[in-house]
Amino acid sequence: MKKKALIITNRSFNLIRSRLPLMLRLKQDGWEVTAIAHQQKGYEGVVESYGIEFLHCPLRDNIFNLKVSFKIIMLFYRLIKAKKYDVIHCFTPKPIIFFGLLSRLMKISSCKICTITGFGFQGQSTLLQRLVLWFYRMFLLKYDGVIFENQTAKEIAIKQKITVAEKIFVQISSGVDLKKFQLRKKKQIPIKIIFASRLVWSKGIRELFEAMEKIKIEFKENILIIIAGEIEQDHKEAVPLEFLQSYSKKGLIDYVGQLKPSEVPDLLVNGHIMVLPSYFEGASKSLMEGAAAGLALVATDIPGCREMIIQNRNGYLVPPRNSDKIHENLRKLIRNPDKIVEFGEYSRKLAEKNFDQEKLSEATTHFYYKKMVDL
To answer: Is the Cβ–Cβ distance between 146 and 167 less than 8 Å?
Structure first.
């Protein structure tokens, strides 16, 4: 009899970009896989084309709306009642909290796993962040296994009494398909600097643009600055389209919008430097992809970025919220093209060693089996 897995995440883009390798690994091992996410325009039918059952859930809508919350809980409830899943794996806060709530209300015999893809509230204490911590304390103990993407997150979880050490597994949750990043010889001019991530202020957008403006003024046509990412209009930290357009009109950046996962490798392998001045990360997918594409990396010295950069070997780590240091280190690379090549070669080696999605998916499935035996 086939084993069954239910994978739940916030939106279909993340499901395809980050969770598809795990789901395909499970199918390869003979599992029947169902996926739940908020269906986004442009991704209709993609998950189903791989033989995976897909269900829409309003996980991007306002969960403080009681009608929305009721819909989410009832969908989870009906699925669990209708089908006996061997493993239910939740990613991102909303699915983790709602499924944790359901686990408190009813007995669920499935092996329950969640992945915390980063504590976005490290070192901060807003009302929303305190609320998320409170929910985690309430519901994470109902999970049989908890995966954190870096050691710092694990230590915070134990200190905050969110879960217990014996349930924890530390591992990057989604790697990179190295076969899609075929390295090629690049033109030296213009040097392409790429930012490819969510367009929210906490990704260090202000500091990034301050640094980029200085870089563009100094190096002019010898530099091409490419910005890729979704305008998240429903996010309180969303970078407005008008902000990007103002820089684009001045010729300082080339904004290419949100790329489909299949379009990312071609953009990156033709680039030279990737920059990510984020304030917090779980395990940066964009930096892993930049490493796979053989780019020199510049990112903030925080958990979730440190794992992708070895200082002075494949890039530079800079202090958070510091546009001067971003500018200084980008300038250092631009003035030394041989260093860009050297760093890029080491990035690729690091990706092959640590970020191969096949190895990471295999490790996750082994964790499933281990936790299923423990039940």
So the answer is: yes
CA distance linking residue 362 with residue 344, whole number of Å: 27
Please say whether the dihedral angle defined by the alpha carbons of residues 4, 7, 13 and 19, taken in this order, is positive or negative.
negative
Integer Cα distance of 85 and 6 in angstroms: 7
Q: Which residues, 6 or more positions from 243, have their beta carbon under 8 angstroms from its beta carbon? A: none
CATH topology of domain 4-175+356-374: Rossmann fold (3.40.50)
Give the pLDDT score at 120. Answer: 53
Tokens 């080696």 correspond to what residue?
349
- 363, pLDDT greater than 60: yes
329 CB contacts (<8 Å, ≥6 apart)?
298, 316, 318
Residues of CATH 3.40.50.2000 domain(s) within the chain? 4-175+356-374, 178-354
- What are the DSSP calls for 151-220, one per residue? HHHHHHHHHTTSS-GGGEEE--S--B-GGG-------SSSEEEEEES--BGGGTHHHHHHHHHHHHHHHG
For 201-215, how does the pLDDT look when each residue is reduced to its tens digit (9 = 90+)?
Answer: 999 999 999 999 999
Percent of residues, the chain, with pLDDT higher than 90: 75
Residue type, 211: A
- Report the pLDDT value the prediction gives residue 136, as an integer from 0 to 100: 87
CA–CA distance, 272 with 291 (Å, rounded to integer): 11
pLDDT score of 126? 63
Gap between the Cα atoms of 52 and 278, Å rounded: 33
Query: In angstroms, what CA-CA distances link 104 with 38, 88, 99, 108, 192?
Result: 24, 15, 9, 9, 51
Question: What whole-number distance in Å separates Cα of residue 258 and Cα of residue 14?
Answer: 13
In sequence order, the 6+-apart residues with CB closer than 8 A to the CB of 99 are 8, 76, 88, 90, 112, 114, 139
Both structure tokens of 332: 């250092």
Q: List, in sequence order, every residue forming a beta bridge with 56; answer none if it has no partner.
A: 37
Domain 178-354 CATH assignment equals 3.40.50.2000 = yes
Query: Are 330 and 303 contacting, i.e. CB atoms less than 8 angstroms apart?
Result: no
**Residue 123 banded pLDDT, cuts 50, 70, 90:** very low
pTM confidence score: 0.87
Angstrom distance (rounded) from CA 160 to CA 162: 5
